[in-house]
Amino acid sequence: MMVRYWQPFREIDALRRQVDDVFSELTDMSTAVRSTWAPAVRLVDTGNDYVLHIQLSGVKAEDLDIQATREAVVITGERKAAEAAEGHKVLFDDLRYGTFRRVITLPEAIQNDHIQADFSNGLLTLTLPKVVEARNKVVKINLGELKGADAPAIAPAAATATDAADAETSDIWAANEA
Q: Which domains does the chain have, with CATH numbers?
């Protein structure tokens, strides 16, 4: 009779290898750009625009490809290792080199034909204007008709210069209804 002992660490290791094999099959597509690293990204909502910051130290502008749809921004590129000068030895190098691909899905649609870019000091900044429907709008509220207890305690805010056309349209609309 053979006695077999349960070896949980061996089973966990076998399970880990199986999971790794499944994920490597999913990510090993022939059309995908194989990434060896990914740059850090920060996305800020400023109201009318999204501002996307991508940290790309050591990457040259000619090694970048940026594509934008109305819903996402795709950045691909390559960071190449600098050659050590003759007679020099690299003793430590913690930087990641090679190709990368980063897809940033945006919360709202943008005007992808009006993007502004700035690439300086290893930081790529993209200003992505939102479509007009998604921008912050100031609505003019006419309190002239409200009297007494029905009047709200909040005073109307002044419209900004960018929304002057919207305010004029609201005034015309109110005049046509009267």
A: 33-132 (2.60.40.790), 148-177 (no CATH)
